[in-house]
Amino acid sequence: MPGVTILGERLRQSLTERHSRHLYRQTLLRDPGCGLEQVIDGRLFVNFCSNDYLGLSHHPDVVAALIRGAKEYGVGSGASHLVTGHCRVHEQLCEELADFCGRDRVMLFSTGYMANIGVINALTRPDDLVCHDALNHASLLDGGWLSRAESKRYPHVDLESLSNMLGNFDRRRTTESMALVVTDGVFSMDGDCAPLADLADLALHHDAVLMVDDAHGIGCLGPQGRGVVADAGLTQQQVPVLVGTFGKAFGTAGAFVSGDDLLIDYLTQFARTYVFTTAMSPALAEATRTSLALLRQEHWRRARLQELIERFRTTTLMLGLKLLPGNSPVQALMLGDAATAQAVSQLLKQRGLQVSAIRPPTVPVGQSRLRITLSAVHSDEHLQRLLDALAEVAEYLQDRA
Ligand code: PMP
After folding, report:
1. Domain that holds residue 145
2. Is residue 154 domain-resident?
3. Distance between Cα 317 and ligand 1 center (Å)
4. Which of 57, 119, 132, 245 to mutate to test the pocket of ligand 1 (most atoms within 8 A of CB)?
5. Phi and psi of 210, rounded to 5°?
6. If DSSP codes are grouped into helix, strand and coil, which group holds residue 390?
7. Residues 47 and 84 in one domain
8. What value does the mean pLDDT take over residues 349-361?
9. Structural domain tally of the chain?
10. Whole-model pTM?
11. What is the pLDDT of residue 401?
């Protein structure tokens, strides 16, 4: 059979299976517009699935900075960082981020996905072990699998399993080999925080290195929005590798890795997703600098976000709905099977609320959910509309029970 026929058959089979298991993902089309009231696929919705947690993506100062950056440096950087793509504005952003995180140095990546893949690959060798929380973001898991090290997953936040995993590794490791413990700071689909202090203790006990990806915490949680690592009071020594992304609280795009001089010097040479790709747009770097300044100054954004999260949780739990624990902007409303999650998401859509149903393979079978995200720029009325609709969801689920 010709190769194209085999390929076509393979693709059709996979797509048909996705459809039949209610797992097919649709691309939505959003029209121009500001804020979280958005025209999506031709209908007006309040968006409760954006990661724009502080509402900075449309901030006029951030938009103005993007335009200024483009005028000063061009839209594209024109080259990789190590050729001529690294502009003064990138350097300024790195210095400001290092100051914000209280860490020695920072380097930039075009996306969080690339940061995680590049860092794990560069840091590990074939005789190393990468220990993942089972619910780590796909980019971390892929980073482990793409590296030549052995990758293992421990059950979600199960410190005993991790301890056993590290203990077994200790018994067979050479003096040269290393264990890298990798975790989301705030888990992207569950919204809970990693037990960072305990993880740091375990890492210390087993001579392992702890890497934290705080994509969803940085900007939103911890003192001055410095994220969950700062919230746990952990030092750079305890968490030598910290990743943050700009596509969420910062409202822009891109990512950073922070650590000591040696780490950043090394990654600048050896992280392939840094070396072999066009540097992040300088215009975006300028916009991100403005976002950083705003999120450092405007504490009200985090206070407002927390207020909305608390009101959301109190009422939703009172309705008898099941939420996973956690005070992050990611709130997981657990619904069980994929079909129910899809039906509830449809019900909310009919009420003008955009909430995405998260189904396998993103989450385990039987743990389909709505991933509801809150933002500092949701109004009281937006929240009330969501809570009213959830009261209907609670009735719908009771009727079915
Ligand atoms: N890490 C985590 C925990 C994430 O949730 C995401 C994306 N949502 C990423 C990394 C990837 O970041 P980016 O979107 O910048 O590629």
Report:
1. 60-297
2. yes
3. 28
4. 245
5. -105, 130
6. helix
7. no
8. 92
9. 2
10. 0.96
11. 76
